[in-house]
């Protein structure tokens, strides 16, 4: 609904200007007031939803959005409309933030969550295509007020669905909103936006404009100082110490300021330069919208083959080229060139829409993902807000300047009321101020002035996109560190020691390769710790056996004593595991995959075919290559054997294949020193893998096992192997 509202309003802006006798600065606030409140309150709305109940805040957001939409539609002045739009932005923030949290809370298992977010993304894409067309139809047949009234029945229907289908949820540990940070951020963005909107009319060097720029600078400075010393800041500015993070955030801001903002600016161009109706301008936006919908698939294809900086640079370059093509088409009055430019612009936007978010998340440690996501959202909507204000200022200022020069050259008197109405987009009313003969001449001058203003605006957007593309190439060297561990086997002290060691290496993402239960007394504690850290996990053979209550299969390699102990330990896990943790185990996927640059890394517990297969160093190379062909990976990492290992293979076709094993966290094999985990570091296009070893108090864990219902066999095994390793290391 937030996407529909933003895009529909962009199409009906010229109609609103005519209906409320508004100037161009007023029209900028129609967009600016909404985006300012929405972007500033999205993070605190999420915090309040966690504390007071997500469904409750969601319903509050729906109600406020509906009431504000009613006020927008009923507005009799532009001031009333802009105040109502600000309230609509507040409602939108309190609607969207809990909606995202509800999806995350309701769909916890990886496959269901993936489907839910896919549906979410699909709906966003479909609404982006339909919204401009809907805006044109509404403006043509119902009037601009219905661009807001249409939200009311949607909100009522949504509220009924929420009351019937969504249970209340909250996060008792959620922190308090950063009121000081929020207030200073809003003040800074408001002052900056006001200065940019006022500049074309009052002059960039006027006291009013310079005063607002100075106020914005002071507010931003105070905001940075306050956030630096806050325990729970709105924005953690320490993340900006990372150059790749700065590059990724700048790419997001630029995408929003030079591509996404065009959903509001291009309809103005189509109506004021091309002379199209609101309906025709809605149809005219389809090349842009369709390309935005389709090109994320191209971005996913690119992600398998090149680093993030090249993808973002390519997307920004396409945005720049698209803006230049549109600018050329506007000046030359070639409609087909404008259409082509829109498609190119949309293709760049489609590539950037998801990839900028991925790039930002890929440059921060895993535990800072929530804050990075908030900064990403803030950068996106700040880009829309400031992009619309600055590009609007360029458009209004140059159109005004060009029209005045043209009127002076044609020996026509320059009238301020006429200029203001032209810049606001109300051309019919402006021409009505003149006799027919002069109005005919002025209509040509107006179109040329608009064309000149839009072409300059688009050229400036293109230059900024090109500049940031170069910045991204030189800053976004992906420095991606990841950690992989496996076979915890309910050994909580070992897992805590490994996670502490991982945290010292500034890791971006952590994965667990299964077998979190059996053979030590802490299965629930281990699962709770993994879940609290939001660590993705693949299913292991012991996880499946416990979760599915499968019988224990005797293995020839085990002695009778070990087999008996094994059966007792697994039976104990089945009895002590909580029902919630059992469901969590049963829903684990058998494999996961992720990308480090263009490299696809496959994660399995044992092998792609089985949860119990041992992929040891002597394993068949031909089988490994068959798996690579079938599953399309560059690196395969497993656990299960408890022996850490890394080996490189080269196929006959020259393709490289890396096979690695994490070793074990919670069990010790002869010759394996304590716990092990695998660290990956992707930097400057190369991936390095290294086995890390971690010492922990093996004797204390062995004693804890001995004091628990877990069979003593595992205490003795852990102690003997651990002490043998310690003696070997000391002798070495």
Automatic annotation (TrEMBL):
Domain Major facilitator superfamily (MFS) profile: 1-477
A cellular component annotation (GO) from this entry: membrane
Annotated localization: Membrane
Stored InterPro entries: Calcineurin-like_PHP_lpxH, Metallo-depent_PP-like, MFS, MFS_dom, MFS_trans_sf
Highest taxon of source: Eukaryota
Main location: membrane
Transmembrane regions listed in the UniProt entry: 29-45, 57-80, 86-105, 117-142, 148-166, 178-197, 209-227, 239-258, 278-298, 310-328, 334-352, 454-476
Topology within the bilayer: Multi-pass membrane protein
Record's keyword terms, sorted: Membrane, Transmembrane, Transmembrane helix
GO MF terms held by the record: transmembrane transporter activity
Coiled coil residues, start to end: none
Name the UniProt record assigns to this protein: Multidrug resistance protein stp
The organism of origin for this protein: Beauveria bassiana D1-5
